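input
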Amino acid sequence: MHSDLRVCASWSEHHDRPVYTLTTSCPECGGDAVNSAPAPYDPTDRYGEYRRALKRRAQE
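output
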């Protein structure tokens, strides 16, 4: 699952603030726009197993 909201990929070089859009290009500079949502899962997460166990224990 990912967000439809995108942010200008080079906003730190061209803009003084992040520029958000729903299109694939930045409306201000015309550069590429990338997905603004972080990845929901990191397979290299060393503590994920413990975090999920705590969550399961809290639900019981």
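quick obs: The helical segments are 11-14, 48-59.
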